[in-house]
Amino acid sequence: MSDLWRRCLERLESELSAEELHTWLMPLQAREDATGLQLFAPNPYTLDTVRERYLARIETVLGQLAGQPHAVRLEVGSSAPRAARPAATKAAAGAEAAPAPAFAHNLDPHYTFETFVEGKSNQLGKAAAMQVAMNPGRAYNPLLLYGGTGLGKTHLMHAAGNLMRERNPGCKVLYLRSEQFVGAMIEALRTKNMDQFKQRFRSVDALLIDDIQFFAGKDTTQEEFFHTFNALFESKQQIILTCDRYPKEVDKLEPRLKSRLGWGLSVAIEPPDFETRAAILLAKAHEKGVAVSENVAMLLAKRIRSNVRDLEGALNTLAARANFYGKPITTDFAEETLRDLLATHAQAVTVPNIQKITAEYFNVRLQDLLSKRRVRSLARPRQIAMALSKELTEHSLPEIGEAFGGRDHTTVLHACRTIKKLCETDARMRQDWEQLIRVLTG
Ligand SMILES: Nc1ncnc2c1ncn2[C@@H]1O[C@H](COP(=O)(O)OP(=O)(O)OP(=O)(O)O)[C@@H](O)[C@H]1O
Predict the structure, then answer these.
(1) Residue 232: phi, psi to the nearest 5?
(2) Which of 114, 154, 280, 310 for a ligand 1 pocket mutation test, highest count of atoms within 8 Å of Cβ?
(3) Where in or outside the cell (predicted)?
(4) Tell me: the pLDDT tens digits for 145-195?
(5) Residue 274: closest CA among 392, 150, 135
(6) What is the ipTM of this complex?
């Protein structure tokens, strides 16, 4: 790697989140010559993103490091051509040696990148899944998508598989829920067909396994998965996994497996924000041919924050009722039809609950959080709790101010603006914010 580029990355490490760095900048290859620095992106998508979001900053840092303006050229390609055989060719070579039964892929054709709505909460996950699909076995291996239920991990996983097959129809992509992997293994053990089992999993170009937290405590499965993983990894076959939390936090998952999972890229999929929830609803309604206005989408997006599956469930209920009664889906109709459901979601998030959870999260006493004390260790959690109250409840600014020890509504407004800005610029703050939302709405 060019020394200048390495130093530039080191500098940027302190400014960007690890995920941004790994998704966009680490895949770049650098070549330095008399005319400046040339950066090679693995695909046009990365190139566009780097140009749009990071190029200006890269040029500034390079200028600082070199002591004078430094030209940067960006293009798609590689600084040194790789010798590795593409995965599909490898599979074909394997097939020559031992003809395998016809391959039946099992991807859901509806789960594509086109039907996936992008927002801040899932942008990195989508980008990583796309890169993997465009460079199977080479971009990130394994790619691990983790996060709460119903947030689109399975969708992205299938989308990656579908894109791989679109780009290379001969590509063998096998999707399995973890339970299916366990079931297949038990069956193979029972019928003494372990060789066939091994062959089945190791002959694919990409193996997609959903919800690997299910492997916890299943030692034989983990052992077998570990060997499958190694075999695939070594021959550069792509592995994509999902998990309901960061795998290091999954109890009874073997340390050596956890360490393997860390070899590639792990990306968190966060709960979508309000705008993304509304956009997802409108997209789903369009897909299903259900006429839903923006107002209705906004109503549901405002009130149902838990996850996309719940949002979709609400939309399906609305569509079915509207169809049954032959009525249009107005906001009144939606309020009326989903009254119980909306009430359940509203109950979960109250200002006192937000205050309590935020105080616990930052390890401060509730009475201090609500006090007038202005020390930073209290002021920031207090601002976060105020901003969360605005985001997650229907209360007005004066009402929220009142609930925080009788503060003025302008103080609440200031808190909301400060936190929003910090979430955009500070990765640590964004993590805290998203984690709290997850706890409060999960
Ligand atoms: N950003 C998005 N755009 C469009 N649809 C989405 C998005 N996020 C989630 N969905 C939809 O929400 C539903 C649930 O998503 P999915 O099954 O992928 O969740 P998951 O994270 O894998 O959940 P689980 O861990 O429970 O399996 C799917 O119908 C999916 O299409």
Answers:
(1) -65, -45
(2) 154
(3) Cytoplasm
(4) 999 889 999 999 999 999 999 999 889 999 999 988 888 888 888 898 888
(5) 392
(6) 0.98
Around ligand 1, the residues with Cβ closer than 6 Å are 115-117, 122, 149-155, 211, 242, 244, 280, 308-309, 312
- Is 154 assigned to a binding site? yes
Q: What are phi and psi of 145, to 5 degrees?
A: -105, 125
From residue 51, alpha-carbon distances to 25, 54, 63, 72, 95 in Å are 11, 6, 17, 10, 41
For residue 50, report the phi and psi dihedrals to the nearest 5 degrees.
-65, -45
Q: What pTM did the predictor assign? A: 0.67
Amino acid (1-letter code) at residue 4: L
Tell whether omega for the bond before 142 is within 30 degrees of 0, i.e. cis: yes
Ligand 1 centroid–CA 442 distance in Å is 15
Going from the Cα of 154 to the center of ligand 1, the distance in angstroms, rounded, reads 6
Q: Whose CA is nearest to atom 4 of ligand 1?
A: 116
CA of residue 84 to ligand 1 center, whole Å:
34
Cα 312 to ligand 1 centre (Å): 9
Q: Which two tokens stand for residue 434?
A: 């998203």
